[in-house]
Amino acid sequence: xxxxxxxxxxxxxxxxxxxxxxxxxxxxxxxxxxxxxxxxxxxxxxxxxxxxxxxxxxxxxxxxxxxxxxxxxxxxxxxxxxxxxxxxxxxxxxxxxxxxxxxxxxxxxxxxxxxxxxxxxxxxxxxxxxxxxxxxxxxxxxxxxxxxxxxxxxxxxxxxxxxxxxxxxxxxxxxxxxxxxxxxxxxxxxxxxxxxxxxxxxxxxxxxxxxxxxxxxxxxxxxxxxxxxxxxxxxxxxxxxxxxxxxxxxxxxxxxxxxxxxxxxxxxxxxxxxxxxxxxxxxxxxxxxxxxxxxxxxxxxxxxxxxxxxxxxxxxxxxx
Length: 320
Hints:
InterPro entries: CO_DH_flav_C, CO_DH_flav_C_dom_sf, Diverse_Substr_Oxidored, FAD-bd_PCMH, FAD-bd_PCMH-like_sf, FAD-bd_PCMH_sub1, FAD-bd_PCMH_sub2, Mopterin_DH_FAD-bd. By secondary structure, this protein is α+β, with helices and mostly antiparallel strands. The chain has a domain at 212-314: 2-Layer Sandwich (Enolase-like, domain 1), CATH 3.30.390.50. Helix content is 25%, strand content 20%. It is built from eleven helices and twelve strands. The strands form three sheets. A five-stranded antiparallel beta sheet has the order 4-5-8-6-7. It has a four-stranded antiparallel beta sheet with strand order 9-10-11-12. A three-stranded parallel beta sheet has the order 1-3-2, with no helix packed on it. Strand 2, helix 2 and strand 3 (42-45) form a beta-alpha-beta unit. Helix 4 packs antiparallel against helix 7 (155-161) and helix 10 (276-283) packs antiparallel against helix 11 (298-314). It starts with a strand and ends in a 6-residue tail after the last helix.
């Protein structure tokens, strides 16, 4: 790790006036600094900023500095969000990592984390080693010829499914952006991963009230039971009335360059009976537009099966 200056602003205004890299839990930043992937000259410890609190009065609101473990355990947090958090990392890391930091975490692509290998995210224009390399963990959706790295966050998938927004603070004021619009697919500029402008800071996450989001879940398929990133995951919420699906929210992770909302699957579920056959038919649309690579073509069928599994788990006992 290279030398750096550490400062600790106590107000949002001071943090925005300073120039440096924000630090909260540090569970991603410190790793990347050790690997020389990130080499900030100044690190801003923002843990003293007033960006905490969890409110479930009308929908959900939580400060960006709330720890993952605390949000997961809070009464009133929708099950898909809580489960996504509990299936992330380890208990020790969940007690350290902030919600804002989790949403901003960088890809776990091994080529991105190896400064000796070409990577367009880390070094624009250098190339993408994963295209012809070991790409079993990489994306099949939202990819480009410049990057095929998957997005790492679990909770971002659940939040995208539930129409979450993030509040962003900058020197010119605050703005609110839907999480689906916040993340950017790589295109020709994979180094631009999100809509965060220079100097801006995530201050709050908001999830609109959705009464039937209590009927939600998150399923994560991975190589081992714990402390592993997803091969495929699915966040699902269903509004079921008299055995018929009135509305649905579905998003997937582990298979795309950003948390991937499946609006076509949602539409295919609406008005259908709660049956496994209906689920399989709707989930057949989950991999539309997929571009599998040499070692990850299995994800095409896996993401469909993961969506079906989440729907089955969610409706166990109520299917016809």
